[in-house]
Amino acid sequence: MNEEGKWKLKEVLEWVYCIVIAVVLALLVRYFIGTPTVVQQPSMYPTLKQGQRLILNRTIRTAKKMPKRGDIVTFEAPSRAYLSAVEADLDNPVAIYDYHLNNIFSKFRYYVLEIGKTSYIKRVIGLPGEHVKIEHGNVYINGTQLEEPYLQPTVETDSLDGYFTDIVVPDNCLFVMGDNRSQSTDSRRFGCIPLEKIESTVWIRFWPFNLFGKVD
C-alpha cells in the first residue's frame, strides 16, 4: 500500500473510532444519566398526556436510590400485567418477572438497547413497610387517607379488579399507580415493583413547549 492509501486508511479508521466512541458514550449517558421518551399511554392523565415528550433522570437507578412518595417513575413492565385471585400472593405481593435472557448479548439488547422491552410510567404511592389499603374510593397509608392533589376532583380509586388492595409493601419494593385510576394497569393488578426494576424518575417535560418544565 502506498503512502496515500495508508493515509486514507488511517483517516477512515479515525472516523470509525470516533463513531464507536460517540455511540458508546451515548449509550452510557442513556443508561446511567438520562434519556428522552414519549408518553404512549393515558394512564397518567391529566399529569401526562399521550404524545408529550419527557426527559427521564436515570441517576436514581445508577445510585440504587429509593424514590419518594409522589415521584413519577418508569420501570420494567412485569411479565404478568394481571394476577388472578389464585396467583396473587398477598403475603408477598411482588410483581412477577420471569423473562429469560440467556447470554450477555441478549441482556445488552434488552436492557441497554431496550429492544423488545416494555416500560411503564406510574406514580409512587406506597413505600417499603407501609400498609396500603384502597377502600371507599380513596387510598390509605398506615390508616391515614392519602392526599392526592394531582388527581382530578372526580377521580375515585377502586380495585380495578385487582387483588393487591390491602397489603404491606415488601422491603425494597414500591406500590405504584397511574393518576388516571380507571385506565391504569398498576400495582393493584400486578403487585409491588422491586427497586431493581425501577429505571428512572420523570424529570422535565420538553414538549409541548408551553408546558416546558419540571414534572410533579
List keywords for this structure.
eight-stranded antiparallel beta sheet; Umud Fragment, subunit A; 4 helices; four-stranded antiparallel beta sheet; single chain; 216 residues
Could you characterize what this model shows?
- Strands 1, 2, 3, 4, 9, 10, 11 and 12 form an 8-stranded antiparallel sheet that branches. Strands 7-6-5-8 form a 4-stranded antiparallel sheet, with no helix packed on it.
- With 216 residues, the chain is α+β, with helices and mostly antiparallel strands.
- The chain has 2 domains: 1-32; 35-214, Ribbon (Umud Fragment, subunit A), CATH 2.10.109.
- A hairpin with a 5-residue loop joins strand 11 and strand 12 (213-214).
- The chain has helices spanning 3-32, 59-62, 104-112, 187-190; strands spanning 34-38, 53-57, 72-76, 119-126, 131-135, 138-141, 144-145, 166-168, 173-177, 193-194, 198-207, 213-214.
- The longest helix has 30 residues, at 3-32.
- It contains 4 helices and 12 strands.
- It is elongated.
